[in-house]
Design a protein that fits this description.
The chain is α+β, with helices and mostly antiparallel strands. Helix content is 43%, strand content 25%. InterPro entries: GHMP_kinase_C_dom (IPR013750), GHMP_kinase_C_sf (IPR036554), GHMP_kinase_N_dom (IPR006204), Mev_gal_kin (IPR006205), Ribosomal_Su5_D2-typ_SF (IPR020568), Ribsml_uS5_D2-typ_fold_subgr (IPR014721).
Length: 318
Amino acid sequence: GRRGEGAAHAKAILFGEHAVVYGAPAIAIPVDSLTAQATIERGGPAGLRIVSSLYTGPVDGAPARLTPVVTAIRASLERAGLGELARGEAGADGALVTIASSIPHERGLGSSAAVAAAIARAAFDLAGAELDGETLFDLVQTAERVAHGKPSGIDARTVAATGAIRFTRGAVAPIRIGAPLILAFADTGHPGSTAQAVGSVQALREREPASTDALLSRLAEIAEHSIEDLAAGDRAAVGAAMSEAHAILHRVGVSSDHLDAIVAAACAAGASGAKLTGGGLGGCVIAVASSTAHAEQIGAAMRDAGAERTWTVEVPAA
Ligand code: MEV
């Protein structure tokens, strides 16, 4: 064909970020209301061109922060059997890659993984080829390694998941959600670099191995135990676990004053609990609400505490 299309949704980690890098289990959900879209159109002179909000022009002139995207485009076209487009060989067709995303960048919501997944799907759609889950995972991981060094793979799995999952060491299993889980999300408006956050936990672990491993183990226990609470639809227990996880993430150095203030505001507004989600240092907070109306109230309180934007996500019972 002349044109391929692909899309992928955002993700949020409920429990286990950072500890998951060291093999601990983590719990994550798809966030369908935020998506990345990619189209690849074959045609024009040999070479790849990109159209995106960050940059428009030939791939060779793309800024450094687009390197994971360029990696995803080249690797996906190669794996889809369209290597001649990727390599821009003389006489080959060119390709125009258009990327659009409503997922805020560097906010712990899996934007880089979702963009890579959308590109992989567009490349296989263009080739008219079947894209299996493992190939998709590999392609997203290839881009994620460029984006942040040592990705656990949880983002790559969750942007392709259709429901809540437990993730450990690359493998996923669906988990049961016993009652709809209503979450208020807040974006601090500040980017948090996953590479920097993961690097700072690693540095802390080198300096203070015993105490850091104890904290990471506790994050693992909280994640594992949350599976029962989520299955039972026990909102109070899920919230309490989130607040404890946030306190530990603060101690491993990946929170910020702004995140702490937003978490405190959510709890003061009656959330059962709240925590940062994703890499931290900036990015987003999630808080457990008792109803959609309550989530809106918590959102207002989080905006009063300085959140740039808030929204409500309902994880359906499943
Ligand atoms: C990023 O969404 C989650 C981290 O645990 C990093 C990773 O798992 O690759 C911080």
